[in-house]
Amino acid sequence: MAVDVVVPALGLGKSSGVLAEWYRADGESVSAGEPIYRFESAFVAIEVEAEGEGVLRHCVGAGETPHWGEVAGVILGPGERFEARVREHAFTHIDEPHTPAPGPEPEAFDEHRESEPEAGDEPPAFDAPRDEEPIPGVAHVPQPVEPASLPLLFRRRGGPPPPPEPELSSFWSHESDDIEAFQDALLHREPPTAETPKATLSFGFGNDDIPEEPQWPHRTHDFAGEPEAPDADADNDDDLQAVFEPAPEPPAATSWQDFEAAPEASDSTDTFDFQFDPEDEPAAFEGAFVFEAPAEAPPAVHSELGTRDPELGTPLSTQHSGLSTLDLGTPLSTPDLGTRDSELGTTLPAFGARGDVVEPWDDQLAYPGPEETIVHDAPVVSTAPTSFASVPLVLRTTVALGEVRKLRAQLGREWRQSGAEPTDEDVVIRAVARALLGVGPLWLRGDDIGLLLAERDTERLCVVRGAAHRPFRDAVTELAAVRKTADDNADCACTVVNFGEHGIDEGVPPLPEGHAFALALGAVRDVPVFEGEQVRRGQVAVVTIAYSPEYLPVGEAAWLLGRVRELLEAPYALLAD
Amino acid sequence: MPDQRSVNVYELGTTSYEDVHLLQKRLQTQRRQGGGVDSLLLTEHRPVVTLGRSHPEPDLRVPPDVLRNYGIAIIPTERGGNITYHGPGQLVAYGIIDLKGWQTSVLDYVNGLEETVIGVLGDWGVRGARTDQRGVWASGKKIASLGLNVRRWVTMHGIALNVDPDMSHFDLINPCGLPDVEMTSLSHEIGKQVPMEQVVESFTFHFARVFECATVAVDMSRPKAATR
């Protein structure tokens, strides 16, 4: 039974690559499971294995760029002919989408007549494979086939087109004698409709996600029809069994104890146990990973996930060990672990982690203390969260606020008419609004709460929750009511929370569902600033961003926080407009 | 969505390329024969230059003798892509993943690896980005290189993130075969040293986040010698 060698699918958005190299020459015998060619695309080299045993025939040459699903070659069984397989493709994959026009029935295709050689034919443009000689060990039944009748599906690219053949053209279409024009039209036809065969791909993504691009005339490939991996080269596996007789596979080792408990661990020296592959060098591996048996249990490995300060590049637990820390709600259990904080261990504020909108300044400020939340005895084997779909990520940085205080005086003059008194929070919001201009498009969902932060030439919706200064909120509300803009119905982008009003140095802000991110400003602290031999007093605060990677990509969030820090440390850019 | 993706994470420390290369091949062979588990190998290599399968001739900026004097071997591999450098201070992540079991396409896996590195960079405030070239770029310079080999939908090789390597070694080659590419590192971008342990931890977290898989940390600490 002939087996097609199909170009593998890489995934959405990538339909082609380079057939880099045939490992087996045209006409060479191959066995099942043996790599026969390499397909390269996007820094990925895919070794395509033979799915059957027989004689390999190439349909696509090395260096060409076939599309996925295209037949790159055929593995012929005993007694099978390449041309016959080609004709089979012509019947099963080319004539289906083509609906003959109403009228007299086209002339019935006569295989025998098709295969009759005609005197005076032009030599075929198709690079005919070497089929003339019988294949050793394969029963060969001569079947003279007219080379020019090979459909273009198997024609090597770049070669001259075959001459029009009256019989074939009548098979293709009785409306046109120009097979080239017909096939060109076929190649540029509209995407397949529901009536036409559609590519089926059950691997990697659903069929509904397959772009509506013309798959014709490339052969469609159904992954579901593929043999399972262990069975694909059952014969090969049998050979392996016969040669190496591998031991029954041990359970996967996940710790040193597993290695020790393995049957091979009875000796004082343990090695990994692997099944051997004839392509590898078994001897070279010995000694590469050798583990000596332990005299006692290995030490625990702490592998809790922690958030690092992007500014300082080190865990916050070592940089801000003296800070008070906020626990805003019920600690998350490990499987739901989302926001990572090495200072808090693996039990982190659930506040906002799953979209809970809870006011943090009511009665939830009870600080349990780090001793109750730090995991001192982390398990040797840790398991990461199983789902990250709605879990926000957290970044934080320390910002010098010396210049912000100077800016507030200028903002006060700007806001004199509204009667509002600028606060640090106001400056932060301005910085966020300005930084948002440099962020890529946000995927936002509707939220009916929000206040419009109005700047000159910039209108952004923000939620100012728990703002300590009522005049500011009133002023912004009034401003929002007056200044109707195109963004009036825009979705809410972010929440800004000022933890500093509650004397909290830092904390993870709540992230309402549908919001791209939430920003929290911690309490302003005095720190010594060394300038040569002089020491002066500086002011810093921790700015924390909790964001949903679903709406705000990770790289954008990192850039956003860095930009906010830049604007806060040199805030006069906020007054430029 | 598969039932439950899970990957064993091996933190191998500093290793020679040949050892881990052999380990990868064995894990991949084991995996595509239906055994084993999906694995993520995290390591730093001793200085070495590796070649992609389709580029057997090294694209060097210096004569090969210079590399020999540095003690840097040139090793051909079966991965895609072109020439690259590995060395201490560079986190290399090799995934031995059965993509069919994960119901993930090759392209999604490649994108996921890049997204993982972008997440790691984000933890340090660096905005990583993709371009029309593969890999991850920061400030217009390449910070992570990628190359994979897939056989029967089981991957090997992976992605290399420059945390704080000796950047002068990249001057010996044309990384990825691009003569004008500029390489950078995480430490260079943020202006300070970054502990590799934290990068490994961050990579593991973001790998699990991006691929929505559970990670099982394999204890690779060498126990004390037995007193028998």
What's the quick description here?
The complex is a heterodimer of chains A (577) and B (228). Chain A has 577 residues and is of the alpha+beta class. Chain A folds into 3 domains: 3-225, no CATH class; 250-298, no CATH class; 393-575, 2-Layer Sandwich (Chloramphenicol Acetyltransferase).
Q: Helix- and strand-based class of chain A?
A: alpha+beta
Structure class of chain B: alpha/beta
Strand tally of chain B is 11
Integer tally of domains of chain A: 3
Mean pLDDT of chain B: 89
What's the gyration radius of chain A in Å?
Answer: 35 Å
Instruction: Tell me roughly what share of residues is in helical segments of chain B.
Output: 25-40%
The first-level CATH class of chain B is given as Alpha Beta
Contiguous helical run count of chain B: 6
Name of the CATH architecture of chain B: 2-Layer Sandwich
Note the beta-strand portion of chain B. Answer: 25-35%
Structural domain count of chain B: 1
Beta strands of chain A, count:
16
Compute the gyration radius of chain B: what is it? 17 Å
- What is the fold-level CATH name, i.e. the topology of chain B? BirA Bifunctional Protein, domain 2
Can you tell me about this structure?
The complex is a heterodimer of chains A (577) and B (228). With 577 residues, chain A is an alpha+beta fold. Chain A has helices spanning 82-94, 111-115, 166-172, 179-187, 229-232, 234-244, 256-261, 282-285, 316-319, 370-373, 402-414, 424-436, 470-482, 554-569, and strands spanning 3-6, 18-22, 29-30, 35-41, 44-49, 54-58, 71-76, 269-271, 290-292, 393-400, 451-455, 458-465, 494-498, 517-521, 525-531, 534-547. Chain A has 3 domains: 3-225, no CATH class; 250-298, no CATH class; 393-575, Chloramphenicol Acetyltransferase, CATH 3.30.559. Chain A is built from 14 helices and 16 strands. In chain A, strands 10, 11, 12, 13, 14, 15 and 16 form a 7-stranded mixed sheet that branches. A 4-stranded antiparallel sheet of chain A has the order 1-7-6-3, with no helix packed on it. In chain A, strand 11 and strand 12 (458-465) form a beta hairpin. In chain A, helix 12 (424-436) crosses helix 14 (554-569). Mean pLDDT of chain A is 55; it is low at 91-179, 189-247, 258-278, 280-389, 442-456, 465-469 and 482-491. Chain B has a single domain (6-218), classed as Bira Bifunctional Protein, Domain 2 (BirA Bifunctional Protein, domain 2, 2-Layer Sandwich). Chain B has helices spanning 17-32, 64-70, 99-102, 106-123, 186-190, 196-211, and strands at 6-15, 39-45, 48-51, 73-76, 84-86, 90-96, 128-129, 136-138, 141-151, 154-162, 214-218. In chain B, strand 9 (141-151) and strand 10 form a beta hairpin. By secondary structure, chain B is of the alpha/beta class. In chain B, 29% of the residues lie in helices and 29% in strands. Chain B has an 8-stranded mixed sheet. The chains are: A alpha+beta (577), B alpha/beta (228). At the A-B interface, strand 4, strand 5, helix 5, strand 10 and helix 14 of A face helix 1, helix 4, strand 7, strand 9 and helix 6 of B.
